[in-house]
Amino acid sequence: MSTDLYRTVRLIRRFEERAIEFVRSGEIVGGIHPYVGQEGIAAGVCAALGPDDVITSTHRGHGHVLARGANPARLMAELMGRESGLNKGRGGSMHAADFSLGILGANAIVGAAGSIATGAAWALRQQGKDSVAATFFGDGAMNEGMLLEAFNLAALWQVPVVFVCENNGYATTMPVASAVAGSITGRARAFGIPAFTVDGQDPEKVLEATSTAVARARAGKGPTFLECTTYRFDAHHTFEHRTRLTYRSTEEITTGRSRCPVEIQGARLTAADRAAVDAEVESLLEAAAGIALGSAHPDPAAALSYLYAGEI
Amino acid sequence: MPKLSYLKALNRALADELERDPAVFVLGEDIRAAASNVTAGLHARFGSDRVLDTPLSEQAFTNFATGAALVGMRPVIEFQIPSLLFLVFEQIANQAHKFSLMTGGQCKVPVTYVVPGSGSRTGWAGQHSDHPYSLFAHVGVKTVVPATPADAYGLLVTAIRDDDPVVFFAPSAALGVRDDLDFAALAPVPLGVGRVARAGDDVTVVALGHLVHDALAVADELAQRMSVEVFDPRTVYPLDVDGLIASVQKTGRLVVIDDSNRTSGFAAEVLAVVAEHCTLTAPPRRVTRPDGAVLPFALALDRAVQPGREQLLTTLLEMS
User: Fold this and answer.
1) Lowest CB count within 10 Å: A190, B194, B301, B302, which one?
2) Which stretches make up the Transketolase-like pyrimidine-binding domain (chain B) (predicted)?
3) Chain B residue with the nearest C-alpha to that of A102
4) Residue B103 is nearest to which of A87, A112, A304, comparing CB atoms?
């Protein structure tokens, strides 16, 4: 498991670094919200899920999608708007989805996916399955009423959902302390949902906490809330690489980056094992980038394909 | 033949679909007690999991329905108040409607949003009296406004079986309409297919929902002076363009009566479509709510800003 978790965090890190390069080179248009620094959360949460479980993701979603097992070439092709992308180039960075893996989509409206995941988890239980939904969102979403409403529905109806709050300290540029009255876990507890703060930089701690939450959900005991503390190493969005916003001090960024999930998990492997995983990831991503770059662009005549389920 | 009211037709359609398809469930506020009467008897028959009474959390339960639909359910949401659709416009227009395209066709979102009591309810004032079907047509969400009990039944059944989101407006002023019907003949009505509610030769009146009945009454009143054709599109989006054109090409004249605010409303779209396809013998006319109307409370004021029989009659006489 240590090696698997390391492979996942390393894959996400290197995928994001390559994606940032492709933003700079213009292969990815519109930019991305890099997940760099937060990899431990996606890796730990998704490692605790089974094949019939589902997830929802966010605007900063590549890590969740990769950790859930999406094909890196198809995700990269999606970021490049290619026909071979996960969403056939119709979704892009903020909407990557792979329903065959239970990835019910990344959502670009902060706080929206929590209620979608709650509905999906409720429905799967109605269908007699023992599926659990894990829904990711940031600290900024804790101020969206729709998400607080979802906590209430999930708790009332004992829905098998795990709420995963990635607290990276900022909603874009707004610090948590300036945005959240009371506490993040306190808000979940107000609905009777057990809530825990977890070190999101350590994939194994996230895995352990999520496993407990998933077991609880499967046992019919309802939702659990995990506040995973983390730090966003890079920009809110790659537009920051040009605008140089100054909401975080150099000292803070240095301190924040000092606890790196890739290093924390990597230190649990022997040097030889780690090097082998690194090589495997490089080779996988090299191939993925090649496939993505070689993929066809969608035909503009098909710009509104898939708008409806059939002809109207 | 037995009488069937519009309201009872909605109830019957829900019951039939709940019975037919285990993926169908209804959710909304006060639906267990059936405050609007649309879900009367359904909780006792189908239980709490399929007639799911919700807290006052419209945004979350609208997305909840989307999530359930993404994994194979066919939720029907009842909204007690038309203005609640403003509160969940994001969840319908920006979430449910966009999932299919954004995922490259990986999923379907078959949710039906039912508003039993849209438009003025007489005396419910500014925040309970809207009729926002034009908004949903504008963003491309399938939208229906049936006029009769048979169409209410048939279009609700179709909306529930449709694989896309559908907004279903049941005008408050139509809920009491009762028709003699053979219940065995009740059947699904396809989306995007209008009907000629009354055939005529001199002018086409396009009307939706409760206004179809007003248009028919005016046509009767004017029968000695002009032959009025009443065309009921039934579906606002997708619009039955062929049926509309056929009617206007026959009559050469057009009046649209529409319970929307005037600017960018449904009537404006009908005029535009007709202008693109037909040569008219007189300028087309609209009878609508005024621009930017907010329904005032006092009854005389409420009535003053709604399109009605008198304005339609006057408009038709001006055209003759």
Assistant:
1) B301
2) 4-177
3) B71
4) A87
**Chain A nearest C-alpha distance from B72 (Å):** 8
CB atoms closer than 10 angstroms to residue A183: 14
The residues that bridge with B255 in the sheet, in sequence order, are B205, B285
Give the mean pLDDT of chain B: 97
pLDDT-derived band at A63, boundaries 50, 70, 90: very high
Say if CB A268 and CB A2 are below 8 A apart. Answer: yes
- Omega prior to B238 cis, within 30 of 0: yes
For residue B2, pLDDT beyond 90 = no
Instruction: Classify domain A2-284 by CATH number.
Output: 3.40.50.970
Distance from CA of B103 to the nearest CA of A (A): 5
Q: CB distance A99–B103 less than 8 Å?
A: yes
> Mean pLDDT score of chain A, rounded to an integer?
97
- And the tokens for A172? 């874009």
Find chain A residues with C-beta within 8 A of B57's C-beta: 149, 152-153
Torsions phi, psi for B295 (to 5 deg): -70, 120
How far is Cα A232 from Cα B278, in angstroms, rounded to an integer? 60
Question: Does the pLDDT at position A117 exceed 90?
Answer: yes
**What are the extents of the domains in chain B?**
3-185, 195-319
Lookup: tokens for A266? 């990597």
Whether domain B195-319 has CATH 3.40.30.10: the reply is no
B210 labelled catalytic:
no
Which SS3 state, helix, strand or coil, does residue A195 take?
strand
Tokens matching residue B140? 């491309």
Read off the pLDDT of residues A259-301 as tens digits, 9 standing for 90 and up.
999 999 999 999 999 999 999 999 999 999 999 999 999 999 9
Give A304's pLDDT tier (boundaries 50, 70, 90).
very high
Adjacent-strand bridge partners of B114: B78, B168
Q: Does B279 touch chain A if contact means CB atoms closer than 8 Å? A: no
Could B67 and A121 be called an inter-chain contact, meaning their C-beta atoms sit closer than 8 Å? yes
Task: For residue A106, give every residue at least 6 positions away whose Cβ sits within 8 Å of its Cβ, in sequence order, or none.
Answer: A56, A57, A58, A59, A61, A64, A65, A91, A93, A94, A95, A96, A97, A113
- For chain A, say whether B227 makes contact (Cβ under 8 Å): no
Nearest CA in chain B to A304: B101
CATH number of B3-185: 3.40.50.970
Catalytic residue among B128, B131, B138, B213: B128
Q: Is the pLDDT of residue B255 over 90?
A: yes
Instruction: Give B61's contacts in chain A (Cβ within 8 Å).
Output: 115, 149, 153
Say whether A104 and B107 touch across the interface (CB within 8 A): yes
Task: Measure A43 CA to nearest chain B CA, in Å.
Answer: 23
CA dist., res. A137 & res. A117, Å (int): 11
